[in-house]
């Protein structure tokens, strides 16, 4: 049983306590309702903080236990089911603090982003199954592209032997998550203003804007609309994904400077490949 136990030093133990405080105390007492004309929900905003912190925290311990390759890949796979944008920030922090793990962190980020397309496809199937025959192959193709990009690497692994992670700085910090949550609030306000002044004609512009943050709420609201043409809805969905792909590359590249070029061409190529998919809508 000892091989399944992860020992904690003092800093890690304090990080666990901090994580429990944020999750179990602050989150439940926040009101779960919308305020102001911009529909800001305090609990939803704080969930973003918890989400970003959780991904980084889980990635840290998975990496510590299973090694840089297995740990980060597993974290990317599971994190992509929840939020690939959060993964790009959390793994970027890991790459920033441990440059020798940057290649694996980049691969985990791309893997998480490839999972996003399948997650969105599942959401569309659940909310509006009529759209699935029109969109499934587009999202599967984009997901496969991401999977291929996540496997490719410019250089061999750092080590073919020991996969344990030594001297890995604990990534659990609230500040980066708060920045992400603030960006989420800002984009929520911008979204409402865009809808107010441009209406349906600004839908594609809105899709580009919303791609900077979590695109799930936008897509869910979009597929629920029966007054929007299916072709327009699908175009807006893929445009938001393209925008989100670009911003995830920027998030990760800003933090992980030593693999910035590798991140740029991967996410750049991936974003460009959305264009023919949009044209075939």
Descriptive tags:
281 residues, mainly alpha, 74% helix, globular
Quick description:
This protein has helices at residues 10-29, 42-66, 68-82, 84-97, 102-127, 132-151, 174-198, 203-210, 216-224, 230-255, 260-272, 274-279.
Task: Describe this entry's structure for a reader.
The chain has helices at residues 10-29, 42-66, 68-82, 84-97, 102-127, 132-151, 174-198, 203-210, 216-224, 230-255, 260-272, 274-279. Helix 5 packs antiparallel against helix 6 (132-151). The protein is mainly α. The termini are far apart. The chain has one domain. The longest helix has 26 residues, at 102-127.
Beta content comes to under 5%
Element order: H for helix, E for strand? HHHHHHHHHHHH
User: What is the alpha-carbon Rg in Å?
Assistant: 19 Å
Distance N to C terminus: 54 Å
Number of helices: 12
Q: Outline the low-pLDDT stretches.
A: 156-169
The coarse overall form would be globular
Number of domains: 1
Mean pLDDT: 76
Percent of residues in helices: over 70%
Classify the secondary structure makeup into a structural class.
mainly alpha
Total beta strand runs: 0
Largest sheet: none
Furnish the topology, listing elements before pairings:
Layout: H1 10-29, H2 42-66, H3 68-82, H4 84-97, H5 102-127, H6 132-151, H7 174-198, H8 203-210, H9 216-224, H10 230-255, H11 260-272, H12 274-279
Helix pairs in contact: 1-2, 2-3, 2-4, 2-7, 3-4, 3-5, 4-5, 4-10, 5-6, 5-9, 5-10, 7-8, 8-10, 9-10, 10-11
């Amino acid at each position: 049983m000892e091989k399944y136990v992860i020992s904690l030093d003092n800093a890690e133990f304090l990080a666990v306590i901090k994580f429990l405080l944020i999750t179990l105390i602050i989150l439940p007492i926040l009101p779960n309702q919308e305020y102001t004309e911009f529909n800001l929900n305090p609990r939803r905003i704080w969930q973003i903080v918890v989400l970003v912190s959780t991904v980084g925290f889980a990635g840290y311990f998975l990496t510590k236990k299973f090694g840089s390759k297995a740990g980060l890949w597993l974290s990317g796979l599971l994190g992509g089911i929840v939020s690939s944008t959060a993964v790009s920030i959390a793994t970027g922090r890991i790459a920033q603090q441990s440059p020798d793990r940057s290649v694996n962190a980049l691969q985990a980020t791309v893997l998480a982003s490839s999972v996003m397309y399948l997650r969105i496809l599942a959401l569309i199937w659940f909310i509006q199954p009529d759209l699935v025959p029109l969109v499934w192959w587009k999202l599967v193709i984009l997901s496969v592209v991401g999977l291929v990009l996540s496997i490719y690497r410019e250089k061999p692994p750092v080590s073919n032997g020991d996969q344990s992670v030594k001297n890995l700085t604990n990534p659990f910090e609230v500040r980066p998550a708060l920045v992400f949550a603030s960006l989420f609030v800002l984009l929520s306000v911008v979204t409402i203003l865009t809808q107010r002044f441009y209406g349906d004609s600004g839908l594609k512009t809105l899709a580009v804007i919303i791609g900077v943050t979590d695109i799930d709420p936008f897509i869910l609201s979009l597929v629920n609309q029966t007054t929007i043409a299916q072709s327009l809805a699908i175009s807006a969905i893929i445009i938001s994904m393209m925008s989100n792909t670009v911003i995830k590359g920027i998030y990760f590249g800003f933090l992980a400077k030593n693999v910035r070029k590798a991140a740029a061409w991967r996410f750049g190529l991936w974003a460009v490949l959305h264009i023919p998919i949009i044209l075939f809508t």
